[in-house]
Amino acid sequence: MDFWGTVRVLRRRWYIAVPAVLITGILALYVYVTVPTRYESSGVLVLTSPAAGGRYSEKTKPEDVVRVNPLLQFDGSLTTTAQILTQILGDPKTAEELAGKDSTAVYTANTGPVGGPLLFISTEADSAQDAEGLVGKVLEKTVAELAAQQKALSAPEQTFITAQVLVKPTTASAKIGGKVRYVGAASVVLLLLTIATTFAADSVLLRARRRKDGKDGRESGAAPPSEKDTTPHPTPPVRPQPQSNGKGGPPQRPAPQGVPNAHQKTVIIAAPKPPADPAWPKED
Known about the structure:
The protein is an alpha+beta fold. Among the domains are: 36-54 and 67-174, Alpha-Beta Plaits (2-Layer Sandwich), CATH 3.30.70; 186-211. Helix content is 44%, strand content 12%. The protein has 7 helices and 5 strands; from the N terminus they run ααβααββαββαα. It has helices at residues 3-12, 14-34, 76-89, 92-99, 128-152, 177-219, 227-230, and strands at 38-48, 106-110, 118-125, 162-167, 173-175. Strands 1, 2, 3, 4 and 5 form a 5-stranded antiparallel β-sheet that branches. Helix 1 crosses helix 2 (14-34) and helix 3 (76-89) packs across helix 5 (128-152). The longest helix is centred in the last third of the chain and has 43 residues, at 177-219. The mean pLDDT is 77. The chain crosses the membrane at residues 14-33, 182-205.
């Protein structure tokens, strides 16, 4: 059925479509209210190399060590270390330890588009406090895990890579995009059900009406009109009326073709016969 056919059905069964649309709006509002609002927060860490470099000798005096700016020594080792930390933080056991068992709060840790030495932390929770608190936990866990990994490798403390907090946990903001998607999906499904219900009710009511009309016709003794009887007969062509002669008299019927009219017909008058009287002069 086309668009206008659908409109006609909805208009004919408005007492079904209108309540269904109202119920759809109420259910969509209920979905929007009941779906919890999610909050998100984020933080950033940066990994830096030691000022004395990656090598250390006990024979070297502290005053003889050449110190450099750690922010000028971003090499591939920092990127590799950042990727190791993202794998550790992505472990399900670590996530359960930080977020809590059966918690709806989640977090992600990645190196972002630059690939390191920056480490981006983002969280999502049902409340603003949970989202911000989880960011702080993940940042502390990252710093502690970085030191633990280096101690496990027996690296000198003078060569430890350190993690500096660039961005502290940001103020959590509400995410309503998920709620809007839920409401949109629910509204579309309910509207489709409304249209389907209206069409089904229209079909049932029309079938019941035909059945009732047929039953009434049989009870009255007259058969219900068939499709042939209800088909309108063609209108016969209208015969044109002859024009009036202009003198107020009846209109003149045109003469058939091949027959002369009154002006064209030749009138034959018979010649008079001589009388039987003998007094009529005779020729000599």
